Amino acid sequence: MTSFLAENWRRRGKFEDVKFIFPTAPNIPITINMGMSMPGWYDITSLDDGDNRSEDETGVLRTRTYLHSLMNQETADGISPKRIILGGFSQGAVTSVFSGPTFREGLGGVFGLSAYPILQQKFQSLWAEAGNHRPPMFLAHGEADPLIRFEWGKKNADLMKERGFEIEWHSYPGLPHSAAPEEIDALETWVTKRLDETKDGSV
């Protein structure tokens, strides 16, 4: 999904001076896929309500470590953390919202398309250890999503707002587990704003 975004923007001459990095999820056994391996950032044991769902802490933390290593490489190459935007769709959105604020330095922004809250107690402790950074967030969700229910996405946005994050929230009636053209347009506007506001890397 995120590679599609970049291709779309490139075709239209957007963000030509931006470097895009597309991590590939490893093939791991996924419980709801009858235990068969498929690309995934962490195991999904069920599609039950988030409050009652078993969560793969090992997988989420492994992914967080990997994403942080990518961002550490960029900062080592001279890129300001304020010029880094981390984001994704579905599992990529979940891990971005978890990993972005728990990075050692504040990022330029985090976006999540069809995300839900995960490992909330662990997030709270890791976030505090990292310094309680609050990168601006763009969160969006389809109201007809049959996989990651809309109320989970709304709860995710509400939880981050309660922690003091600046949230730009969008919902889309009739949209299933996918992205809508107007959602992509809204994300493009948000990314443009974030890049404009962090040009000197110090915001």
Count of helical regions: 6
Beta-strand share of residues? 5-15%
End-to-end separation in angstroms reads: 28 Å
Classify the secondary structure makeup into a structural class. alpha/beta
Main sheet summary: 4 strands, parallel
What does the average pLDDT come to? 93
Q: What are the secondary-structure elements, in order, as H or E?
A: HEEHEHEHEHEH
User: What is the radius of gyration computed over CA atoms, rounded to a whole number of angstroms?
Assistant: 16 Å
Strand order of the largest sheet: 3-4-5-6
User: What best-fitting shape do the alpha-carbon axes yield?
Assistant: globular
Q: Any low-confidence stretches, pLDDT <50, length ≥5? A: none
Give a count of the beta strands, DSSP E runs of length 2 or more.
6
Q: Helical proportion?
A: 25-40%
